[in-house]
Amino acid sequence: MKHTFLAIVAFILFLGTATAQQKDTLTRKERKEVSISNHGIHIGKQLDSAKKANRKSESTISLDLGLNMIQDNTNYNDPRVQQYLANIPANRRNSSLFSQRGGLKPLNVNIYWYRSFRLLKTKGQKITLNTGLGMQLYNFRFDNNITYTKDPSSIIMDTVKFDKNKLGMNFLNVPLSFTFKTRLHTNADGKKSTWLVYGAGVTAGYNISTWTKQKSDERGKVKMHDNFSFSNYNICATAEFGIDDVVRLYATYQINSMYENGLDQHPVCIGIKLLGI
């Protein structure tokens, strides 16, 4: 979790620095307005209420928190897989080898800066195109006492019982998505409406950090950074669904495999948006 926290803090500081530099280039009439709400952190020019209602784009920072799962499509008879798992007992070379510890341990955290462009706005429907930059953070907690090794890269069944056996992966991502809002209800006074929110898109990411963390009575805390035969890239399909200003759920599915060695595993994440709803 420490690596996840530091990655989020570093990205927020990066966004803050970039925003500050941008602000310094503006004239007094073009000074930026920054507001924080359950919509996220909004950055835009100071505008009167009429102009705000008609603006065609805006910037938002969103934060997601969810759970990781793994869809395992591996053919464990594949020679490449057999070679990679050569140090694992033959009767353990199956999907149960990578089973995840239950509860809220396998966490997924996403933080994005979005620039949203309005494509359609009517009384009953809104459509926006969203892109930007962000970070996607995977945290997997294994039930079994497996250990990733390097030089050579492989997996072994360890001889100790781990209290914590964690794999972390951090991706720098570029998102592209469409968000739709459909009016469900309008109050009698006509001042407030309820909107159904739903959308879909993709993200393309580059792996900036992969690491393991193990904790046991015999060895204490052991951390190791390496590629471990994981893919340097990920492509994810994304979806969201909820009620505007109330709650918004998200889901992601990594289209390409996590590995480059024959293992065919795909992270699946579901959760809730804490900012940017």
Estimate the mean pLDDT confidence. Answer: 86
Biggest sheet: strands side by side, in what order? 3-4-5-8-9-11-12-13
The number of distinct helices, counting runs of at least 4 residues, comes to 3
Shape: elongated
Order of helices and strands: HEEHEHEEEEEEEEEE
The CATH architecture assignment turns out to be Beta Barrel
Strand content: over 45%
- Summarize the biggest pleated sheet: 8 strands, antiparallel, barrel
Low-confidence parts lasting 5 or more residues at pLDDT below 50?
22-31
The assembly state of the depicted protein chains is: single chain
Number of domains: 1
Distance between the termini: 24 Å
Kindly report the CATH topology: Lipocalin
> What is the count of β-strands?
13
Q: What is the rounded Rg?
A: 22 Å
Helix/strand-derived class?
mainly beta
Helix content: 10-25%
The top level CATH class name: Mainly Beta
Can you walk me through this structure?
This protein is 13% helix and 55% strand. The chain is mainly beta and 277 residues long. The protein has an eight-stranded antiparallel beta barrel. A two-stranded antiparallel sheet has the order 6-7. It is elongated and about 70 Å long. Mean pLDDT is 86; it is low at 22-31.
